[in-house]
Specification:
Helix content: 40-55%
Structural class: alpha/beta
Order of helices and strands: HHHEEEHEHEEEEHHH
Distance between the termini: 23 Å
Strand content: 5-15%
Largest sheet: 6 strands, mixed
Number of helices: 8
Length: about 260
């Protein structure tokens, strides 16, 4: 990230001066090996996740017809009329937060955040990734009624919404899959997959399931690559740490904190 106004607003912070360069030269071969290896693991993980996202998008495109979009719009309208009865004076705002992610430990879902913010949870059963349209309309309706919303994108396809939280109403809309079920009894449950064209789903069931299995395998491969990258990164830390002047690092940090506090 480059500063827009160097010296005036932002400043460069050089922590490289805190290295013991002579000490690092004694482990240069090990450092180069780890550095090259962990970057390669990340590249492999990104390729696998990109391929998994493309397969998921293919499944979604296969089932997302105009008829389904109309059904989702009608369902969203019904929910809004029931849940957003009172309107505020000003439009609400939206913020983006990821509730899920792909980590070196595997897929992660922070449903505990939903439980902390929302007592009522609509579970949207959505194995094929079709819920984005209804979530967009629900978010727009909530903001139009003056409520702030938390939009939660998909980690594989960040341009698609995966969950929606409306804390002011203690209301959440959470999409689930067979691999990622909602762990409690929901306030209401809507089968998004059941709204798709049944003949279209039946005719392409084998293709849909095959693509889902391959996407799951690609995700597992990505997790394995991330775990390898994590291990190599830990090795890098072990190599670097003895040759870093941490008191000097902390002194730089303390100086920055004092500077910021003076400007508050």
């Amino acid at each position: 990230m480059e500063p827009r106004y160097p010296g005036l607003v932002e400043s460069y912070v050089n922590l490289g001066a805190c290295y013991d360069r002579d000490g690092l030269l004694t482990v240069k071969d090990e450092l180069k090996g780890c550095m090259k290896g962990y970057k390669g693991c990340y590249q492999r993980a990104y390729r696998c996740l990109t391929a998994a996202a493309q397969l998921a998008e293919d499944n979604r495109s296969l089932l997302l017809t105009q008829s389904l979009e109309d059904k989702l719009a009608r369902r969203a309208k019904g929910i809004l009329s029931r849940e957003m009865r009172e309107e505020g004076d000003q439009a609400g705002r939206s913020v983006q937060r990821f509730l899920s992610g792909i980590t070196w430990k595997g897929p992660l879902w922070n449903f505990d955040t939903v439980e902390l913010l929302c007592e009522r949870v609509y579970e949207l059963s959505d194995p094929w990734g079709l819920a984005h349209g209804i979530l967009v309309q629900l978010a727009a309706g909530a903001m139009a009624s003056g409520r702030d919303v938390i939009v939660c994108p998909s980690p594989l396809c960040p341009d698609r919404m995966e969950h929606l939280l409306i804390p002011a109403l203690s209301l959440a809309f959470v999409t689930t899959t067979p691999a990622n079920p909602w762990p409690h009894k929901p306030y209401r449950r809507i089968r998004i997959d059941g709204m798709a064209d049944p003949e279209l789903t039946r005719r392409n069931r084998a293709r849909l399931r095959f693509a889902r299995r391959v996407a799951a395998a690609l995700t597992e491969e990505a997790v394995d690559a991330l775990a390898q990258a994590k291990g190599m990164h830990d090795e890098l830390e072990q190599l670097y740490n003895p040759h870093v002047d941490f008191p000097r690092v902390y002194a730089v940090a303390d100086g920055l904190i004092c500077h910021l506090e003076e400007r508050l």
